[in-house]
Automatic annotation (TrEMBL):
GO molecular function: kinase activity
Subcellular location: Cell membrane
Organism, as annotated: Paenimyroides ceti
Location (main, coarse): membrane
EC number(s) from the headed UniProt entry: 2.7.1.-
Taxonomic lineage from the root: Bacteria, Pseudomonadati, Bacteroidota, Flavobacteriia, Flavobacteriales
Stretches of the chain forming a coiled coil according to its record: none
Protein name as annotated: Diacylglycerol kinase family protein
Bilayer topology: Multi-pass membrane protein
Key words, A-Z: ATP-binding, Cell membrane, Kinase, Lipid biosynthesis, Lipid metabolism, Membrane, Nucleotide-binding, Phospholipid biosynthesis, Phospholipid metabolism, Transferase, Transmembrane, Transmembrane helix
Highest taxon listed in the record's lineage: Bacteria
Length: 123
């Protein structure tokens, strides 16, 4: 049996695997690429409109929330396709609710973006 790593070595290895996961998500998943692009546009808008520190914090949290849940949704889709590649109503239900979770985050992020930028654009 493989010997267990020490606490510190274990955490460093986990962080390395997590960074590899970030790289895989960004380079292979179209949904993550799309969300990253929207996040990048939000960051550019943030610099353009010189938003406050509080607005930056809310915007960064919103971007992080969407990317995190989109990443988990991708993982759910991959597991579903792996364990049951054929059409199946239960797999469809699982994928739908995982996508629904992303939609909650995306709507919240949209609301944050609207509250930050609409007054700056129209007022
Ligand atoms: N094996 C399946 N059985 C039943 N329904 C499925 C199955 N695979 C996909 N679906 C249905 O199709 C929808 C889209 O699934 P899919 O895996 O293509 O996700 P997607 O959001 O298009 O993913 P991607 O991130 O690859 O663009 C699901 O939400 C579900 O309703």
């Amino acid at each position: 049996m493989k010997e267990k790593d020490s606490f510190i070595i274990g955490r460093i290895k986990s962080f390395k695997y997590a960074l590899v996961g970030v790289f895989k998500l960004i380079t292979t998943e179209h949904s993550i690429m799309a969300q990253c692009s929207l996040g990048l546009i939000a960051v550019i808008l943030g610099f353009y409109f010189d938003i406050s520190a509080t607005e930056w914090m809310l915007q960064i949290l919103a971007i992080g929330l969407v990317l995190s849940i989109e990443g988990l949704n991708t993982a759910v889709e991959k597991i579903a396709d792996f364990i049951h590649p054929d059409f199946n109503n239960k797999i469809g239900f699982i994928k739908d609710i995982a996508a629904g979770a992303v939609t909650f985050a995306a709507l919240a992020a949209l609301a944050v973006g609207a509250l930050i930028y609409l007054p700056k654009i129209f007022l």
